[in-house]
Design goal:
The structure is a homodimer of 174-residue chains. Chain A is an alpha+beta fold. Helices cover 37% and strands 17% of the residues of chain A. Strand 6 of chain A pairs antiparallel with strand 6 of chain B, so a sheet runs across the interface. The structure holds manganese (II) ion (2 copies) and zinc ion (2 copies). The structure holds a DNA duplex (30 and 30 nucleotides).
DNA sequence: CCCGTAATCTGGACATTGTCCAGTATTGGA
DNA sequence: TCCAATACTGGACAATGTCCAGATTACGGG
């Protein structure tokens, strides 16, 4: 997608944001664009394949800078290192396969700024809602038809939600 | 809350789930109940204050086991170590202060099984939606009235979402 | 075009959060 | 009470970041 992007375009973009232009930064931007949802480590590898070498710190510094400038979005899926992507400011979410870890973009079910209206905001000033959908991708579903499914995800009476309440219940039944 | 719970109740609960009863497990269950959203490390400290000592491995093993048994829920807030809580199977979400990290429970804006219906499921079999709301808690808001707010969170034309597209735009304007 | 300074990059040490493993201790049933 | 399965311990190791001091590079001004 950005494979066809000229370096001069990236230079322009950086200058517009008052960011010094370096070979490392250009390479990292290209890497982020060409491999969405990659980790810092993966991006470092990609960059090394192009410009020979880069320090770990330069990778982290640059990604952090680009995130600050809203040129890159950092997502931190539970149980994984941070991942980075090109697609910013559109509030999209992510769908991750429990089995193989593959990650795809997903638009929000609710609207442009999804879920930003929580029932009770507890006095917080909410500015972002991050949503991660968990499931099994088509490939993994095909591989194992029915994984002896746990996780009924069904509701339980509110009175049994906490450990303490559930054990009281257990005692009665005993 | 569970401070008043008798050990024998916890024993009962574990037995019902075919889990061996040990002093470490009981202490960890108590710790999780009494300090919601604590990290493994914090729980280990709490447990040590009660039973003297426990290995890090026992803490992780037990928490993992309790999570498997649906007696404890593990949440992994972006940028933080995993946290654990008592309140399971009710699909509630979390609201985290960007400034001080305080975490509160929040019920879903949408319904009992929130957001589980994504626009396009990409063929995935979705079983859970995890939502993290980000913001500033009342205390932090009071401390700093307006933090030179960035993050407009406003929509941008779809044509400007990706780096590549935005730089093209930049070029025109040049 | 050259210079000086600020910004950036480098490489190595260090921190945090977890997992692996082999040996020892405890649990719970026979 | 005894045994086998299970759990716990302590130390090594791994992954993901951050800190820091010194070397290098970028870029605006002369
Ligand atoms: Mn994405
Ligand atoms: Mn909670
Ligand atoms: Zn998969
Ligand atoms: Zn706060």
């Amino acid at each position: 997608m950005t494979n066809t992007t000229d370096d001069s375009d990236l230079v322009l973009l950086l200058r517009r944001h008052r960011v010094q232009v370096t070979a490392q930064r250009l390479a990292i931007m290209r890497a982020v664009s060409s491999r969405p949802h990659a980790t810092a480590d993966e991006l470092a590898d990609d960059v090394r394949a192009v410009i020979g070498s880069i320090s770990r710190q330069a990778v982290y510094d640059t990604l952090g800078l680009l995130v600050d400038k809203h040129l890159v979005r950092r997502i931190q899926p539970p149980g994984s290192a941070a991942r980075f992507e090109d697609r910013v400011d559109d509030n999209h979410h992510h769908l991750i396969c429990r089995t193989c870890g593959s990650t795809v973009d997903i638009d929000c079910a609710v609207g442009a700024v999804p879920c930003l209206t929580a029932h009770d905001d507890h006095g917080f000033e909410i500015d972002e809602a991050e949503v991660v959908y968990w499931g099994r991708c088509p490939a993994c579903r095909a591989a194992t038809p029915e994984p002896a499914s746990q996780r009924p995800a069904s509701e339980r009476p509110a009175s049994e939600r906490h450990m303490s309440e559930r054990l009281a219940h257990a005692k009665e039944q005993q």
